[in-house]
Write a structure and sequence with these properties.
Chain A: Keywords: Proteasome. The complex is a heterodimer of chains A (267) and B (487). Chain A has 267 residues and is mostly helical. Chain A contains 13 helices and 3 strands. In chain A, 67% of the residues lie in helices and 3% in strands. Chain A has a 3-stranded antiparallel β-sheet. In chain A, strand 2 and strand 3 form a beta hairpin. Chain B is mainly α. Chain B is elongated and about 95 Å long.
Chain lengths: 267, 487
């Protein structure tokens, strides 16, 4: 076997061992060494040269990047996740004809969808979604993310929250926790428009706090315009004031002048 | 016009060819003459006309005519001749030999023009595609593209842009589009360097098509936003560009812009391009639904489209009524159609709109309704419908879809009195946008009145005028056929 390949495989074994031990410093260290070593292989993207060991090298590289993505989730580093995912992606798209499908593929893709959802990059979410085949869409990991997005758009927030229990893979939990924070802000935003007031216990329940104090802290920090009195939270102040009765004269003048100018051009 | 004379002198070939193939050959020779004059006088429009005329002949081509034409246009025995004729199926050895023999004796020794050579490639390629001989077509197309790289003449641009199109088509028909992506990118670069705008336009569209074929919306958008833009040269290419643009924007949730592009593409497309217009309409319907608009019934009743648009009509109906059950059943019933059209994921997005419409209907009909009833009316199938309904209504209120207030303790939704719309600025704004639209339309119409360059300098002679009129007539006649072929 190619000595370079052996070296990478050995290093990768050490990396995997460290990942199991949750020794993240060692992992990060080994990963950067691995990435440097991978640049030496000419069969990997973007060159895709047909070397005798190509299949082996591609599989190994894919495995390494998949673990890198998992590592980034464990270390809760979204930027690293994005970087590693984009390095991994060519192995799923461009090399798909030459390699057998990776068992991790759908988990990783599902994680990526979830990340885009958490970062509220819905356009990219849908762009990624278009790339998936109908069999992929049936996979529980992908389906989970797709259903989350739907519930999120509809406003069925409690469905989003209950989805945390049904997460198809342990690594999804990190993003689900992030999503819960986003959901809380969304619910807060909706409530202040939809209700005149809520009793403190209801508000606590809705905003998913375990104690009244947490609720009070949250209101103080994020929504100082909400009022707490008589055991209720009042949203009155957050409502818009009565519609302005004033005539928007400047705007009207501008419009009329532009009509006059255009008409003059026609006649 | 020396060529015309030359052609008249051509005696009728002695071998027994049928009348049609003879006249086809004659037409082809005429086209070749047109290309020659165009090439010598550097008039691109003549070559454009030649391409249009070819499209009319397309159905009449057969291999013996093509052999005869090749030996007429290129010197038999020359490099180009052997290269191109190798792609034609040798079905009729005997007749062919006679044909080449007769022609070669008459063929005047002339300097082979690159335009003619490229044109021969084009005709042969079209013939091969029509014969469904795709592997030969691919080989021929690749060879012609390799040849094109070395020719840098503006008069070739028209022909080369057609060649690019068929090059891509031949690969698409064998579903090997991914193979030629890097070649197309290289060609696009070359076209940009040579300022071949028609070529750039065509290649950009081919690339977009290539990417969208594999649902690579991200790459397509990146290319589109960075490629140089200029005023469109060909209406067909512009329509396609608009369609691809509309698709990309739909996927990226820019519905307003997407709607504009798709509707414009559908309007600009020629009447004959039915398939293309149906596609545009399908996407436009979905986008309008996603925007919360309900397309008019006339959209679905356009001539020749009723059947194709039927699933979309049913879908619209479900969204209009706001019935989730109906929507689900329609989506399931036509799922194969939606999958084929690539609109399946978009219909999934529509669920949210169905709920919104249903909610709006409820809020208009009732001044106060319990959330349990709302959940029942919306037919939300979830373990906890009331809580779901409450969240959904709350979000709808925040997004301004319904004007209501929730009461959590009693579990009600209280609709607010709808105010008098005429006491607000709303009508003024609506009028303004309509006036702006009309004025804009007028301005664009004025701008679109273009005049050919130099038309004011020299008065056209009688002959020129006759030719121009004839050309215009042909244009009107052939444009429909050409579009038909393309889409």
């Amino acid at each position: 076997m190619d000595p370079k390949l052996t070296e990478v495989s050995q290093l990768f074994e050490r990396f995997k061992a460290a990942l199991v031990r949750n020794d993240f410093d060692t992992c990060a260290n080994l990963l950067s060494q691995l990435k440097v070593l991978l640049t030496g292989f000419r069969s990997l993207p973007p060159l895709f040269e047909d070397t005798p060991n190509a299949i082996h090298e591609l599989t190994l590289a894919r495995d390494i990047y998949e673990h890198a993505v998992i590592l980034s989730v464990k270390t809760e580093d979204q930027d690293a996740f994005e970087r590693d995912f984009f390095q991994l992606k060519p192995y799923y798209t461009d090399a798909s004809g030459r390699l057998p499908q990776s068992p991790q593929e759908y988990i990783i893709l599902g994680l990526n969808l979830l990340r885009l959802l958490v970062q509220n990059r819905i356009a990219e979410f849908h762009t990624e979604l278009e790339l998936l085949s109908s069999t992929a869409l049936e996979n529980p990991c992908i389906k989970h993310a797709v259903e989350l997005e739907q519930s999120f758009m509809e406003g069925a927030y409690n469905r989003v929250l209950s989805a945390r229990q049904t997460a198809p893979h342990e690594s999804f939990v990190y993003f689900m926790d992030l999503l819960a924070k986003t959901v809380r802000d969304e619910i807060g935003g909706c409530s202040e428009k939809a209700y005149d007031y809520l009793s403190i216990s209801d508000a606590r329940q809705m905003l998913l706090f375990s104690s009244d104090k947490e609720l009070a802290d949250y209101i103080k920090e994020d929504h100082p315009e909400w009022e707490i009195k008589d055991g209720c939270v009042f949203f009155q102040k957050a409502k818009e004031t009565a519609p302005c009765k004033e005539i928007p004269s400047l705007q009207l003048i501008n419009q009329t002048l532009s009509y006059a100018r255009e008409l003059e051009r026609i006649v | 016009m020396t060529n015309d004379v030359e052609m008249k002198e051509n005696p009728v070939p002695s071998n027994p060819t049928t009348l049609t193939s003879h006249s086809t050959l004659h037409d082809l020779k005429e086209i070749a003459g047109l290309i020659e004059t165009g090439a010598y006088s550097r008039e691109v429009r003549r070559i454009m006309r030649a391409v249009r005329l070819t499209m009319a002949l397309r159905r009449k081509l057969n291999s013996s005519v093509l052999f005869a034409f090749l030996s007429f246009a290129l010197t038999p025995g020359s490099d180009a001749y052997t290269r191109i004729s190798a792609y034609l199926p040798k079905e009729d050895e005997h007749e062919m030999e006679v044909d080449t023999a007769t022609s070669s004796t008459q063929a005047p020794v002339k300097h082979p023009l690159p335009e003619l050579e490229i044109y021969c490639y084009l005709v042969v390629l079209i013939f091969l595609i029509d014969q469904k001989n795709y592997s030969e077509a691919k080989a021929c197309a690749s060879a012609s593209i390799a040849r094109l790289r070395n020719i840098n003449r503006r008069t070739v641009d028209v022909l080369s842009s057609r060649l690019y199109f068929y090059y891509s088509l031949s690969y698409e028909l064998t579903s090997d589009l991914a193979e030629i992506r890097s070649d197309l990118l290289a060609l696009h670069r070359i076209a940009t360097l040579r300022q071949d705008e028609l070529g750039q336009e065509t290649l950009l569209n081919l690339l977009l098509r290539n990417y969208l074929h594999y649902n690579l919306y991200d790459q397509a958008e990146k290319l589109r936003s960075k490629a140089p833009r200029f005023e469109a040269h060909s209406n067909q290419q512009f329509c396609r560009y608009l369609f691809y643009l509309g698709k990309i924007r739909t996927i990226q949730l820019e519905y307003t812009d997407a709607k504009e592009s798709l509707l414009q593409a559908a309007r600009k497309a020629p009447v004959a391009a039915l398939g293309f217009r149906v596609q545009c309409n399908k996407w436009a319907v979905i986008v309008r639904l996603l925007l919360g608009e309900i397309p008019e019934r006339t959209v679905f009743m356009q001539k020749g489209m009723e059947k194709a648009l039927r699933p979309y009509f049913e879908l619209t109906n479900a969204v209009r009524i706001g019935d989730l059950e109906l929507f689900k059943s329609v989506a399931e019933r036509f799922s194969s159609t939606f999958n084929k059209d690539g609109t399946h994921n978009l219909t999934v997005r529509l669920r949210h709109n169905v709920i919104r419409t249903g909610l709006r209907n409820i809020s208009i009909s009732y001044s106060r309704i319990s959330l349990a009833d709302v959940a029942e009316k919306l037919r939300l199938d979830s373990p906890n419908p009331v809580a779901d309904a409450e969240c959904i209504v709350a979000k709808a209120i925040r997004d301004g879809a319904v004007d209501a207030i929730l009461n959590h303790t009693d579990g009600w939704m209280v609709s607010k009195e709808t105010g008098d719309i005429y006491s607000t600025n709303e009508p003024q704004m609506a009028f303004n946008s309509r006036i702006a639209f009309c004025l804009n339309m007028h301005n664009e119409a004025v701008r679109a009145l273009r005049f050919p360059p130099n038309s004011h300098k020299e008065k056209e002679s009688a002959e020129n005028r006759r030719e121009r009129q004839q050309q215009e007539q042909e244009l009107a006649k052939h444009i429909a056929e050409e579009d038909d072929d393309e889409f």
